[in-house]
TrEMBL record:
Alphabetized InterPro entries for the sequence: BchE-like, Cobalamin-bd, DUF4070, Elp3/MiaA/NifB-like_rSAM, HpnP-like, Methyltransferase_Class_B, rSAM, rSAM_horseshoe
Identification of the protein by name: Ribosomal protein S12 methylthiotransferase RimO
Species assigned in the record: Rosistilla ulvae
CDD domains membership: Radical_SAM, radical_SAM_B12_BD
Every Radical SAM core domain range: 163-396
Amino acid sequence: MATIAIVNPLFEVSYWGMEHAQAIMGTRANMPVASLPLLAALTPEEHDVTLIDENVEPLDFDRLAQFDIVGVTGMSVQRFRMDEIIHELKDRGVFVALGGPWVTVEEEYFDDRPDVIFIGEAETTWPKFLEDWKTGDHQKRYEQTDRTDMTTVPTPRHDLLKNKHYMFGSLQFSRGCPFQCEFCDIIVTFGRKPRIKLASQIINELECLRSEGMRIAFIVDDNLIGNKRGIKPVLEEVAQWQERNGYPLAFMTEASLDLCEDEELMELMARCNIQAVFIGIESPNEESLKETKKFQNVRERGGTLLEKIHQIQDFGIEVWCGLIVGFDNDKPDIFAMQTKFLKESRIALAMVGLLHAIPKTPLHARLRQEGRLDLNDDQPFGTNVIPKQMSRETLRAGYMKTMFDAYTPDVYFDRLDQLYIQDRFRLRAFETEAFRKRPLLRLRHAAFYTVGFGVLFWKLMRGTPDRGLRKIYRQRILNLVRHRFTTPSVCFYYVTKCAMHYHQHKMTQQMIEHPDTFVSTIGKSMRTRREATIEQQATLPVLRNDPPQTASAAECPPHAARSHSR
């Protein structure tokens, strides 16, 4: 028997992490990466597995030194912290296994310090390594040559996570995306043929999350609807499970914009209680979308970009989005275009990022050939892309102004109020046939959201340190209640949007006040946050939920890899 620890390193402050909102909400991290519980499930029962997420607990290297094997996973945004952890472990003579999205695309990055590395998915290579390790005949490098058959994936060990410290849970339905976006590493790692779990596997995982007390979970697929025909029967089974059990879980997910073209699919998602979808919009500049081969966002079917977004919102599914600046076809006017687009789209939560070229992607290969890659590991302008139609200084300044404009309180809440008050957005999930026919179910959920609204409002007023922002939040919330008091779910989610705004607003302020931290988002800011956390208190192989994570933009989000992969 081996004693095994699997470690997920600390993320830097990011769009996805909601770090500044965690204290307000009484949690330590946004959600767990999917690799940890899945690797635990793939480990033969004879071994003892401990999952450690540095985002919810500090690392105890004396304790880690007692394990036979320490696995370290990590994405590109975590690579500096991964390097520090590996150095510390090797200095103590620990056997280190390394995997995850970053080593999959840059396998020479850590030299020969890890004892073993894993490239790509790990459903077959992780158990194979453990068998080899027992006989003392393990390889230095493992790479799974065939794509994982998702119908064979076991139920992740969510019970081994410290779930009380996460804002919400995570689970995966499928892997892969059929599109060909130039900047995306998802198609490199997981392929362009979506692979889907059986409905029975997903139901087992839902039961597991439910038993752990989770009420909200992120379906972390890079594109849930990559195979529309294949996902529909699965969603039907999930919808029936929700209906049988009184809708115990609410979901968010990621999907491509062509969702708007299939009302049957949107209805199935609503019946599953999928309430919000993150979509890689990337740019209102059609030439930039064509340049990066994001053709699904520019095809005429379904209307204009804005019309497609409005169709999803008007149906009753909220839209969050990812935006990118720095494409070859972007000129200095792109920043004003992005700001105008956000206002007209009625999207409150937008992850705006700088284009980033990930190794092994077509974008990386093209820019390297053109001599437009900054090969320094710690890029001074927040991206390794040298823009074509503006200076790097202009790109950085324009990006920061775009973020500032997006999260200025009046601008942010005007977008949110346009959707929630003027246009009276309603969640389709609560207007499906199952809800209409069950008055007691409606009453129970209304009570849950009413109580939740009160609790979150109290936490927001108590936990927001900025007096001016507290006043704005209070005024905006009271105005919302005057207009939508009969819709408690809307009131509940409006308060969560206030907490999310606090995070984005503070993150943007810090970025503008300390541009040296911003331009070193994967260096200095990582160290600053870790030191602060300690004061207050891999995929080993690529099996990620992960948000979100590649970074197609500024390496900001913990799930950057997925953030813009649709």
